[in-house]
Each structure stands twice: as structure tokens, then as C-alpha cells.
């Protein structure tokens, strides 16, 4: 048997690289529990000092509770809305026949090929004229509509068997019933894949929230954390505590829904 | 959209084309029309949203790129002035060079990810799930948080990296604050962040390769290394092509890391390395929302769009030389 021995080399390389992947997180946690003078000592100490008050300081320097809530609501609103609306359009493109279907689908897809920055100035102007700047609506509404979501779910619906639908149609079910009671439950893995992707992108999104919500109480965590950098450049322990608090929720969701995350990415192969 | 309007319209349509043989209740023509109306109703929310927030803005941005904006609103038509200005702007030129450099350096992540995917794809290897999780962790971490942590690691005086280098007797630079190293330091963070993502895609690609190819290669006496180069790599080339297209598009749009590391406006300019860090999208942000030069910003982003199309087209042309479709 040469297999167990052969894997020793692979493990050595993988463990060394895993250390490189994990060290920044470990150093972030250790630093977040130090005093500023402890963090800037040379040579550095590899032991945390139990300065939990750094985490409290984050809440003093930023309206962290507000920003956390804004981020949660933005993420939930975009995810639920986008998955629902995209699945409706995707069902129509996959299963219903109507004049102009191919053309309209092509028009939807054209949005996918354009870099998102191209939409930003006019979107900002729309928010400005509606008086939506510094509101939750500005964070959520443009994110409800997604050509990517429609494309992904349409592919998924096309792969589903037709028998159940046919049976339901013979029983007199209309498109709405079929969509809601048959297609959506069958498409669960696809809906979950899209949900985790939208959740990840929304939580971590910076550009759009940064542009529309400039009032600290209306900011999301991404933008808030970036603003912390400007104000208190040298207080790294507090900065590390803040960045850990901001990124931890999605990391926790990832750890619980790992398979869905990885399958979602492996099957769609698109990143935000 | 209600059912009543749907059937009314359907009836009108059926009356116009009365030759439809009634198959089911209400006739085929009517059934078709109802189905079509449901189709439009289902796509309407996303369709209207995309039209208002995405499609119309494309045209508007193209128009804005030919205007000049006053600081307090209002814009005047200036034709191609913004574009000629852009071509002569040294700051934009440098931002383009930085962005292309970052994009090229980022491609290093592809061979790295292939090697790690091959290591993880071995039969009977233990702990694959754990490695995969650890490699994937940076992918799900907020880019702004990633940037903060790396800025601290890169700190010239107290950073962990320079401490480790000092143990080897090397005096490290101040990385993202040093013009000579800033772009490379940024690319390292980019590679660290995207490695797990690429790895997952390649792992899925490798698992889709039929076992028979390897069995055939074994019968022909190919060892594991030969199998990797003669079977895995060629069959993985469509995946590698896909990853390289996606990663070039992503790199050309780099913003978060730079903004979080360097800030914008005066704060950014205080960093001596900022000229080497500024990317095209950062410049766009700065012109559109810091200096409110929106016409010029629109021209920047239209050029970025053309650049992305050009780079993607080049990759599609080059794929003939190296991508094997089984």
C-alpha cells in the first residue's frame, strides 16, 4: 500500500497553505483582544490580552447597532425579493409560451454583460429624485431585480421533469398554482443556491451602499467599517474587533450552510 | 394583472381568429392567450425593474458621458470632450496600468487553484472537507474586513509580515504604503481572497471528468503525473478558460480592497503609494461621487465597459490555442 504514504506530501502542502489562509483571521482575533500599546509591541506577542472592551469601543465609535440592522434588513429584503421575483420570471421563460419570449430573454441577458458601475450614476439620480437617499429603500430596491437570478433559475426550471406539471394542468391548475405549488418546491435546491449567493453579495456589498447612504446611522456595515479606517487609523485592535463583528455573521451562515454555498458557487461559477 | 382582464383579452383574441378548434374548455386559442398573459405578468416585475434601474441607465450613462456637470446640478452637451480629456489624463492612464497589472497578477491564482484542486481530488485523501472550508473562508469574508486585516499585517512598523521577515534578517518595506510594492501587495490579497473560489470550480470540473479516461491512461502505463498533464489538464481547460474570463472581468472592476485600504479623496492622496493603488473603478467613484464630475465619470465607466468587452473578446480568440473541448 503506497497510498497513505503518498498522501503525506499532499497533506504537508495543504496544511502549510491552510495556515496561510487562516493566519490573517487568527491574527485579527489576537489583535482585537490587545491594547493598542500591546498590539504595537516589538517583538509582537502571540497571546491575546483579554481586552474585550475593544468590542465595546466599536459600538461607541460607530452606530454599530443601526448599521448591523440596516445590513440585516438590506440582505433579507434583497434576498427574499430577488429570489421571488427572479423565480417568477424564470418560470415564465422556462415554461410559458408567449410572443417575444426569446427576444425579451435576450434583453434580460444583455444586462448581465454590462459592468454594474455603468448603472450607478443614473440609479443614484433616481434615488435622489425620489428622495430615497439615506433610506432602506435605496439599499434594497435596485437589488430586487436581477438578470442573473432569472438566468440561473431558468436553467434550473428547464432541468425539472414536466410530468407533475402536466398532471396538475389536467386537473385544471393554472400557471399561478403550478408555479407556486409545484415548480417552487421542486426548484428548492436552485432557490437555495441563488439565496446564498444573493445573501453573500448583499452582506458584503460596498459600492452601492457607500454611494446612497452617507449618513452614519443609515450606512451598512461595509461602508461603516470603511469609514472607521479614515477616522481612527492607528487603533488597530478596535479596527480588528469591528471587522470581525462585521464579517462574522456571513462566516457563521457559511459554516452552517456550507454545502449550499459551495454547490451554489460550483454550479453557477459567478462571483459578485 | 387579474384573471378577468386576462380572459377578456383572450376572448377578444379568439374572436379575431375564430378558426381555432376547441380542444379543451375554452378553446386552444384562448388557452394560448391566457398563457401568454400569465407569461407577461410573471416577467413584468423583474422586466420593469430591469428596464428602469438597469437598461435605461445604460443609455443614460452613455449620454452623460457626453456632458459636463455643474457642481450644483445641470449638465451641458460637450460631445466627445470627456473622452479626449480621458485619453490625455495621466491619472487615468496610471489607473489603467494599475488595473491591468492587478488583473495580470491575479491570473496567478488559476494555476495555484488547479494544483490545490488536484491535491484535494486524490482518492482516499482525508480531511478534504476541512481543507475546503479553510480555503473557502476568505471568499465569504467581507472584502472591507479583509482589507483592514491585511493592512494591519502589512503595517511597516508593527505588521506581522515584517516581523516574520525580520526573523530571517530581512527588513520589509511598508507594502501597501510603498509605491514599489503596493500593487503586488494588493494582488496577494486578491489571490488569497479568490483562491478558494477558483478551487471549488476546478474541483467540480475535475470531478466531472469520467473515470474511464484515467483507467485508459493507466492501462497505457501512465503514472499520476502523466495522467495529470495528459488527462486532467486538457479536460480541465474549458473550466480554466471560464475561470480566467470571470476572474479578468472581476479584476478589472476592483474597488472594495483599494477603497478600504486607501480611502478616497484627500485621505487617499496622503498615502504616497496611492498612485500605484488607484484602479479604474476607484477613479470612477472618486470623479462621480467625491468631486461630482459625473460626465467625466460616465466616460470612464463607458471606457471600462469597452475594455471588458475587448479583454473578453481577446480571450475568446485565444481559447482556440489552448482550450480542448472533449
TrEMBL record, chain A:
<feature type="transmembrane region" description="Helical">
    <location>
        <begin position="236"/>
        <end position="257"/>
    </location>
</feature>
<comment type="similarity">
    <text>Belongs to the binding-protein-dependent transport system permease family.</text>
</comment>
<feature type="transmembrane region" description="Helical">
    <location>
        <begin position="103"/>
        <end position="124"/>
    </location>
</feature>
<keyword id="KW-0472">Membrane</keyword>
<dbReference type="GO" id="GO:0005886">
    <property type="term" value="C:plasma membrane"/>
</dbReference>
<feature type="transmembrane region" description="Helical">
    <location>
        <begin position="178"/>
        <end position="203"/>
    </location>
</feature>
<feature type="domain" description="ABC transmembrane type-1">
    <location>
        <begin position="68"/>
        <end position="257"/>
    </location>
</feature>
<keyword id="KW-1003">Cell membrane</keyword>
<protein>
    <submittedName>
        <fullName>Carbohydrate ABC transporter membrane protein 2, CUT1 family</fullName>
    </submittedName>
</protein>
<dbReference type="GO" id="GO:0055085">
    <property type="term" value="P:transmembrane transport"/>
</dbReference>
<keyword id="KW-0812">Transmembrane</keyword>
<dbReference type="Pfam" id="PF00528">
    <property type="entry name" value="BPD_transp_1"/>
</dbReference>
<dbReference type="InterPro" id="IPR035906">
    <property type="entry name" value="MetI-like_sf"/>
</dbReference>
<dbReference type="InterPro" id="IPR000515">
    <property type="entry name" value="MetI-like"/>
</dbReference>
<keyword id="KW-0813">Transport</keyword>
<keyword id="KW-1133">Transmembrane helix</keyword>
<feature type="transmembrane region" description="Helical">
    <location>
        <begin position="136"/>
        <end position="157"/>
    </location>
</feature>
<feature type="transmembrane region" description="Helical">
    <location>
        <begin position="68"/>
        <end position="91"/>
    </location>
</feature>
<feature type="transmembrane region" description="Helical">
    <location>
        <begin position="12"/>
        <end position="30"/>
    </location>
</feature>
UniProtKB/TrEMBL annotation, chain B:
<feature type="transmembrane region" description="Helical">
    <location>
        <begin position="182"/>
        <end position="204"/>
    </location>
</feature>
<feature type="compositionally biased region" description="Basic and acidic residues">
    <location>
        <begin position="10"/>
        <end position="24"/>
    </location>
</feature>
<keyword id="KW-1003">Cell membrane</keyword>
<keyword id="KW-0812">Transmembrane</keyword>
<feature type="domain" description="ABC transmembrane type-1">
    <location>
        <begin position="96"/>
        <end position="315"/>
    </location>
</feature>
<feature type="transmembrane region" description="Helical">
    <location>
        <begin position="233"/>
        <end position="255"/>
    </location>
</feature>
<keyword id="KW-1133">Transmembrane helix</keyword>
<keyword id="KW-0472">Membrane</keyword>
<feature type="region of interest" description="Disordered">
    <location>
        <begin position="1"/>
        <end position="27"/>
    </location>
</feature>
<dbReference type="GO" id="GO:0005886">
    <property type="term" value="C:plasma membrane"/>
</dbReference>
<feature type="transmembrane region" description="Helical">
    <location>
        <begin position="37"/>
        <end position="56"/>
    </location>
</feature>
<keyword id="KW-0813">Transport</keyword>
<feature type="transmembrane region" description="Helical">
    <location>
        <begin position="133"/>
        <end position="153"/>
    </location>
</feature>
<dbReference type="InterPro" id="IPR000515">
    <property type="entry name" value="MetI-like"/>
</dbReference>
<protein>
    <submittedName>
        <fullName>Carbohydrate ABC transporter membrane protein 1, CUT1 family</fullName>
    </submittedName>
</protein>
<dbReference type="InterPro" id="IPR051393">
    <property type="entry name" value="ABC_transporter_permease"/>
</dbReference>
<dbReference type="GO" id="GO:0055085">
    <property type="term" value="P:transmembrane transport"/>
</dbReference>
<comment type="similarity">
    <text>Belongs to the binding-protein-dependent transport system permease family.</text>
</comment>
<dbReference type="Pfam" id="PF00528">
    <property type="entry name" value="BPD_transp_1"/>
</dbReference>
<feature type="transmembrane region" description="Helical">
    <location>
        <begin position="100"/>
        <end position="121"/>
    </location>
</feature>
<feature type="transmembrane region" description="Helical">
    <location>
        <begin position="295"/>
        <end position="314"/>
    </location>
</feature>
<dbReference type="InterPro" id="IPR035906">
    <property type="entry name" value="MetI-like_sf"/>
</dbReference>
